[in-house]
Amino acid sequence: MPEDLIAFPQARLHIVTGKGGTGKTTVAAALALALAAGGRRTLLVEVEGRQGIAPMFGLDPLPYAERPVAVAPEGGEVRALAVDAEEALLDYLEMFYKLGRAGRVLKKLGAIDFATTIAPGMRDVLLTGKVKEAVTRADRGRRVYDAVVMDAPPTGRVGRFLNVNAEVAGLAKVGPIKTQSDGVMAVLRSPMTAVHVVTLLEEMPVQETADAVTELAGIGLPIGAVLVNAVRGTSLADAKVTQAELKRGLAAAGLPADRATVKGLADEVADHVRRASLEQRLRGELTELGRPVVDLPFVPEGMDTDGLYELADVLRKAGVRAS
Questions:
Q1: Rounded to whole angstroms, what are the CA distances from 85 to 63, 107, 168, 248, 266?
Q2: Is the residue at 250 inside a domain?
Q3: In this structure, are residues 149 and 35 in contact, taking their beta carbons and an 8 Å threshold?
Q4: 164-210 per-position pLDDT tens digit
């Protein structure tokens, strides 16, 4: 088992990214369960408007409200939130300008949609700002959430998404927008944050993982773990099995051992060996990134709530802890 997943002991914001199709939303949900174990409370946030979290917990689409979605192992609670940019802007207008009902009027007039469309970066500022608020929120001197998990955009877009606050802060020299952006970037670049990258043992996801680690480190974001999803059992990378050995084995087991059957089985073994050798090489490339690498098993029954708890258990054994 590799070193602890949490390379940054103070991490309270866990950002999960990965190439599309690697299962990053599933892994984010499992991570939220693992971090909530033992009586803690975590918030699982999605920012892309896909409503990918709710179906995994058998729920209707999430509202713009933090609601309980699961009980974690050994007690604890996972809440979830689907961040809506327009609603986040209303929060922002109320927080900094005390507009209250006037902000709702602006929404009806279409001014909010106009603002987030004419300045696309503002949408990402609002989304990340809402997440930052949840991370730092306190009630009577105690943090409301022990950890926040963000299901972030894919690796191809995550760098720009997370760095947009720095770009906006550079444009806005003074005022609440700069204050907000500076505050978000202070959290994202601090030990409170860890960005985890989900991948598969396939060439394109591994390459995108390497590119993402380089990009994110280049803009000062702390990298957490590489999470290798859907890992199957023991491989036969070094297996050397002849057709004669296969034929003897089939005969000994009382199975058909005709030429066509033996050849078909030999071809499957050869395909597996090639695949296993490729995976071995790709795993070496991931190791060279210098981050903890954690394997998450392939769930043959398909991913459902039970599968999420199975992955959460693996993550806990790999060292996941809420700070």
A1: 13, 12, 16, 65, 55
A2: no
A3: yes
A4: 877 765 555 556 667 777 888 899 999 999 999 999 999 999 999 99
